[in-house]
C-alpha cells in the first residue's frame, strides 16, 4: 500500500473521531481547548495504536473480533449517546459531559476498531506498521480538533438541544456501525 493510499486510509479512519469530536464540540461550553485536546489526543493515540495491535495479532484475533466489531461499536456509541441525552435534562448535576478517563477510553475504543482492521490489512499488504500508525494517529488528532472546533461554532443554539443533538449523533454512529 502506497503512502498516498495510507493518507486516504487515515482520513477515512479519522471520520468517526471527527464526528464524535463535533458532537462534543456542540455540547461543551467550558474548558473547550482542554477538552478538545484531551479528546483529540485520546482518539489519535487509539487510532495509532489499534493498527499496531491489529498488525501484530492478524492471524490470532482477526476471526474472533471481526464478527463482533459492529456490535461493540454500536454498544459503546449508544451508551455514550444516551448518557449525553440524559445529561441534557439533568440540570441539578453540573458535571462535565462525559469527558472522564473512562469515557475517553470508550470513545478511543469505539472510534478505533476500524483502525484495528486497517492494521490487519496493512499486515496482509506487507507494509511496515510504524509510519502508517503515526500518520493515522496524527491525522486523527488534527481531524478531531477540527471537528470539535466546528461543533463549537453552533454553540449559540440552546444547550439542551445541542446536547440532545450530540447524543443523537453518537447513537446514529452506533446504528450506522450495525447496518
Structure in words:
The chain is mainly α and 179 residues long. It contains 7 helices and no strands. Helix 1 packs antiparallel against helix 5 (101-125), helix 1 (3-27) runs parallel beside helix 6 and helix 2 (32-56) packs parallel to helix 5 (101-125). The longest helix is centred in the N-terminal third of the chain and has 25 residues, at 3-27. The radius of gyration is 16 Å and the shape is globular. The mean pLDDT is 84.
Largest sheet: none
Distance between the termini: 28 Å
The percentage of residues in β strands lies in: under 5%
Overall pLDDT level: 84
Strand and helix layout:
Elements: H1 3-27, H2 32-56, H3 58-65, H4 69-89, H5 101-125, H6 130-152, H7 159-178
Which features would summarize this protein structure in a list?
179 residues; mainly alpha
Give the structure's gist in a few sentences:
The chain is mainly α and about 180 residues long.
